[in-house]
Design a protein that fits this description.
With 458 residues, the protein is α/β, with parallel strands linked by helices. 51% of the residues lie in helices and 11% in strands. α6 packs parallel to α8 and α13 runs antiparallel to α14.
Length: 458
């Protein structure tokens, strides 16, 4: 299948660029439609600390069944119009594909049971990307690749509605780039290595989805953009670096859509707002309800464009109000009631404006999630002809926009952050326009022993 190309924005009117509505809604077999006016809660759950092996699998499956049962009962109690459950498989359940498939089956069986009681639901299944480690032979063949593909195939066959992944192509390079605030290396990791990996990976995921009748939903740069964001939150790196990095991530993550993924894009990819702007696909987002897994400065503004509202992974632990997944399902449902009630009252734009205004000025990462900024930057990004060009444009355009926002007093940052914008711009100026030349230079000067270009066919 030829890659899709996106040379125009999906949205030209800022008033249409809003939560709950996507230019390309996704319809599922049970009649649920994502991106057609209703924001659905998407519960993301995980196990408490437990050793996963042959002897504990019965307990593992029992815990998944119990947590999804509790969440479904709460959803019926609170009259949810529909729910989504995401299972991010833990490493042993991808290294052992049948275990992951068994998890998908148990969860889907519970969802089917409650669908019989009138609760519409969808399962998003996310295998962990295990393509790393000293025993990795190659990114696109060998044991690691085969197990990821087998997990996708089997999970779809037992009923997973959506297939997703947090892919790791280029992550070793990107980790080093973040720690050193090295913008050219981040550009190489995302716009060259990561983009190439995404094309191979998502061509295969889309193929599996078509064969099984499931939906290839989307990727996320969680291991890239969220790593930067969390480190910036802890003041280990400049916040402006994390913001620039996030917009660069959008080009890489969009490759999944270019290969045929239809959304809704995955929750922990905050860059999803750029995908929505350019491709029109619906997106899932996580904000204040993701505090169970990590802190951020974007808790409200991320809701401005969401089509599904998620929580990041919450462990199966007891809280005063009940088991944590059930408690978080309640929170998500109430949040979605607000989204959908404002829409029903014709006040969605007001609610969006409030969410944006509450966060935008306080942090660079929040600033670049403002719908107006997203559309402005997206219009510049699509002028590039390749992922490399687009990633470079994303970096430069974001630097310029952050400088403009600071000068206009639309964004408050420290003097240190302002100085880093100049440093990063100087770094970016050293990147040649020729991708082949840039790639050759980066490979020649590579000092990261965890990155082997041959594993990517570079």
């Amino acid at each position: 299948m030829a890659k899709l190309t996106f040379n125009e924005l999906a949205y030209n009117n800022l008033d249409e660029f809003i939560y709950g509505y996507a230019k390309k809604p996704v319809t599922f077999k049970n009649g649920m439609v994502i991106g057609n006016g209703i924001v659905y809660p998407e519960l993301n759950v995980t196990l408490p600390p437990i050793s996963i092996n042959e002897s504990t699998m019965k307990k593992v499956l029992s815990q998944y069944k119990e947590m999804i049962t509790g969440a479904c009962e709460k959803a019926i109690e609170l009259h949810a119009p529909g729910i989504i459950v995401e299972i991010e498989l833990l490493p042993p359940c991808t290294f052992n594909p049948q275990w992951g498939i068994d998890v998908a089956k148990v969860v889907k069986d519970v969802l089917r049971e409650y669908e019989g009681q009138g609760l519409k639901s969808l399962l998003r299944l996310t295998p962990v990307d295990i393509r790393e480690g000293n025993d990795l032979v190659h990114m696109y063949h060998g044991e690691h690749w085969d197990k990821v593909m087998k997990t996708f195939q089997g999970s779809a066959e037992v009923g997973a509605d959506m297939l997703a992944i947090e892919s790791v192509g280029g992550k070793h390079l990107h980790d080093e780039a973040v720690m050193n605030c090295d913008l050219p290396k981040a550009l190489f990791a995302l716009g060259v290595v990561g983009a190439k990996d995404m094309e191979v990976l998502w061509t295969n995921i889309v193929k599996i989805a078509k064969e099984t009748g499931s939906v290839a939903s989307g990727d996320t740069a969680c291991g890239f953009g969220n790593t930067s964001m969390v480190l910036a939150e802890k003041n280990f790196i400049p916040r402006v670096f994390a913001a620039i990095d996030r917009v660069m991530c959008a080009v890489r993550t969009m490759v999944a859509v270019e290969c045929g993924a239809t959304g809704p894009d995955k929750d922990c990819g905050y860059e999803g707002v750029y995908l929505k702007a350019i491709t029109g696909t619906p997106i899932s987002m996580e904000g204040r309800t993701s505090a169970c897994a990590h802190s951020s400065s974007v808790g409200n503004i991320v809701g401005a464009l969401c089509d599904c509202w998620s929580n990041e992974s919450v462990e199966f632990q007891r809280m005063l109000g009940g088991m944590a997944p059930t408690v978080y399902m309640e929170q998500l449902i109430y949040d979605c009631r607000l989204f959908n009630t404002f829409t029903a009252l014709g006040q969605a734009k007001i609610y969006q404006d409030v969410m944006v205004a509450s966060d935008k000025k306080l942090d660079p990462h929040a600033y670049i999630l403002d719908p107006k900024v997203v559309l402005d930057l997206s219009a510049k990004i699509i002028k590039g002809k390749t992922t490399f060009e687009r990633t470079k444009i994303a970096a430069q355009a974001t630097i310029e926009e952050l400088k403009r926002g600071i000068a206009a007093k639309e964004l408050d940052v420290t003097e240190r952050e302002v100085n880093y914008l100049d440093i990063l711009e100087q770094q970016l100026a050293t990147v040649p326009d020729d991708e082949a030349q840039f790639t050759a230079e980066m490979i020649k000067n590579n000092t990261n022993d965890k990155f082997d270009p041959k594993q990517y066919d570079l």
